[in-house]
Automatic annotation (TrEMBL):
InterPro entries: Ntn_hydrolases_N (IPR029055), Pept_T1A_subB (IPR000243), Proteasome_sua/b (IPR001353), Proteasome_suB-type (IPR023333). It comes from the Eukaryota. The keyword DNA damage does not apply. GO terms for biological process: proteolysis involved in protein catabolic process. This is proteasome endopeptidase complex. Pfam families: Proteasome (PF00227). The keyword Protease applies. PANTHER family: METALLOPROTEASE TLDD, PROTEASOME SUBUNIT BETA.
Amino acid sequence: MHSLLTRFSKTAAESEFTRSQVFTDDGDLNSSDATWGSQAGFGNLGYGIPSFAIPEVADPSAFLRMYTNDAADPNCRIKINHGTTTLAFCFQGGVIVAVDSRATAGSVVASGTVKKVVEINPYLLGTLAGTADTTSFLLLIVWCTADCQYWETYLGMHCRLHELRNGERISVAAASKYLSNIVCSYKGMGLGMGTMICGWDKTGPSVYYVDSDGSRMKGNLFSVGSGSTHAYGVLDQGYRWDLSVPEACELGRRSIYAAGHRDAYTGNSCNLYHMEETGWRFVGNYDISTMHYEGPGDVPGADGTAYGYDVRVAGRSSANPPEPVADEAELTISDV
């Protein structure tokens, strides 16, 4: 990994030299800080239009496939791992957004307090799910969250500009389309993200799925990440449109718990949000281990019991079966 960085990246000295040469062809102009002032003023004008640094190769897409496509080459230099669980669903009372808080680097838990919900504006939420490199904890945090974090924050800026220009909030459909167009322009250049844009506009609650390939889909229920199959198992069983708010919150908690209990790359805690007509509301943070042994506590929608099945059936097994019901007499030959 370090040899690849050394080969295809610039040193600090090379970057500084390039920056200093931006306007040297003009006799009176150069991009030094002394000439252009501080970065807080007009100093950044001398550096040209900001752009992302990509590998200095003819075809970045081919470069990434060469070193990261473990499906074609199991011994590839960089292995991309996926690990998280996020979900969102619409119901008659708005949108429920639930995520876990674990970030992993291969088989190691790098962080248990990752915030995987981006508060784009008071009426829009975005979720974080992406790719992580096992080589470094730093790359893990950057790759797993930075793509979604950056682009959804950037989206928030344009949503605000839209509101100032048009005198009304941007719709969820338009916000998701804007994000889809942005990430599609970087397709094949290393972006790794699968996000849900959730909000409430004049058409009501909406959820859109957007990924780094530019895909964009509208739906009532989505789950993204390595634990999504476990979350879908709970969601498919308990979801309906006429859920009450406490029932919907409980469904979100149980779904993330199921993913955290069964998927090694999901866990630590569940962050729960409720999007309603007046904007989003943070419901709470719930420890997954505590929910397994004790339940979520005294919260609306919960029945007060532990989520873990092994807690519910403690002391009852084939070696220690429950007592037979007294009023159920067994049939004998004389009863026939």
